[in-house]
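Entries read sequence, tokenised fold; example below:

***
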Amino acid sequence: MRIARRSAFVIMLSIVSLGMWAAEAAPDPAPAGAKREPVSVRLPAPAFAAMETINPEHIRWHVRFLSHDLLEGRGTGQRGGDIAAEYMATQFAEYGLKPAGDNGGYLQKVPLVGVTTMPQTTFALVSLRGEAANLKFLDEYVAYDQTQQAESDVDAEIIYVGYGIEAPEYNWDDYKGVDVRGKVLLMLVNEPPSDDVRFFKGKALTYYGRWTYKYEEAARKGAAGVILIHKEDMASYPWEVVRNSNSGEKSFLKLEGLALKVASWVQFDVAKKLAAACDLDLDKMMADARSPEFRPVNLGARLKAHMVSNVRHFESNNVVAMLPGSDRRLRDEAVMYTAHYDHLGIRPDMPGDNIYNGAADNATGCGILLELARAFSVAKERPARSVIFASVTAEEQGLLGSEYLGQHPPVPAGKIALDLNYDDVKPLGAPEEVEVSGAERTTFYPWVEATAKEFRLAIRPDARPEAGHYYRSDHFSLARVGIPAFSINEGMKFKGHDEAWGLAQDKEFVEKHYHQPSDEYHPEMDFVADGAMARFGFALGWEAASFVKLVGWQKGDEFEAARGKSSGQ
């Protein structure tokens, strides 16, 4: 739903008082253009005028081009992905934004290694009685060699480690001091279920539940491999998503430190058969894993794998531009907007339509990012802090581009006030809700609430907190280095429709189009939602760029320590 049109004068006088800001008070006078304490959703007239130029049809044009077959699914390190990056850079240049990449350009080179699991790979689960089950790639398992070697062999015991989590703050340790060096670890996705927000945040998934954490922790402990058990209700997506996301080349940042020879998933039924062949019951094993008293179980089985990989060293690019701030005391600080431009490319072995166009995921986010950049560029007044626009690569490969950006930001992480990310904003019409999951973890949340109220958008709680969406998009990479960050998206209620309609649209997309070739542009798409989310984000970014103090994390948040470290506190 578009913000109700009213004069800039009225907007300037409209104040929603929610008390004092949760961040540190600023006793000194505010620099020119910087805001003081009461929660306010005022925009100066030039900012409001620029925001009003945001046009959903501009976003449509970008989505149409970026998701065209000519871009071949925007694969990471592939021709179509490189074209998309150049397109983003060209648009930033057209808007007159300052290059913020490498060597005075818009592109920031990201060193990557592409690994393709070859048909010669063998993957056999050998039971307690010596019976070998040779699994079929993609249908029963997926696996990659994270050591970035052409060949690796694994012949190791399989140890079941429950959820594979070591979390001292929750008095939880699935390893219990067991030496797992050189072993293969069988584990569950997700984390111990709970309704207690003090225990793994209750129903909301923490990073401990993400597969990326499980691989990282196992590698830190010296394991040779990990086998994750895929169960749709626990992973929050079907096997087809796992298969399609791991069917071609997988990209990794250039290796530093320990890595797994086998990073794999298996179908639930495969794991169930393995457990039975070892005289165990997988359902009971899963139930046992819910107890803090759980101890690792040696199945007596082995994984015998011969990993054969095609290894390709290459570079992809983040695209980074900046609008310098207006205040001499604050312009070396910034607000950041992000959206990934990559998708899954082409799957050569697939008959018929084999181009993963990625219209919703994430040509929409790129279209919004570009329209935000254009709107900021035409404002006759600039915000106090600088504004960074970053279109990142390799999100679909594991948030790699944003991880690299977080490690090599154009402005030190401790000086970035906020990251607002856009990912998969479906063109479904006029929204009456907004989702900003994770915003409540920051000191900026009162302004998010006030701005949503001004835009007449209800804030929708995360519909599926158990899916861990906060840890599955690029804002998470920025949060890990301490930058307050969250994504902006529409909710489930749209003008002219009830909530059930929105939920049905979301369900259909996940089941039929998410990471499928059918995620394509169609002329009948209604980009009003994308325009509304762009305007909402414009207002938030301008606000954060104008505060006296930087935005922070709420006390006790898991990223608070990283913020202190990046800020030198």
Remarks:
- The chain has a mean pLDDT of 91.
- DSSP finds 16 helices and 22 strands in the chain.
- The CA atoms of residues 184 and 412 lie 39 Å apart.
- The longest helix spans residues 359-378.
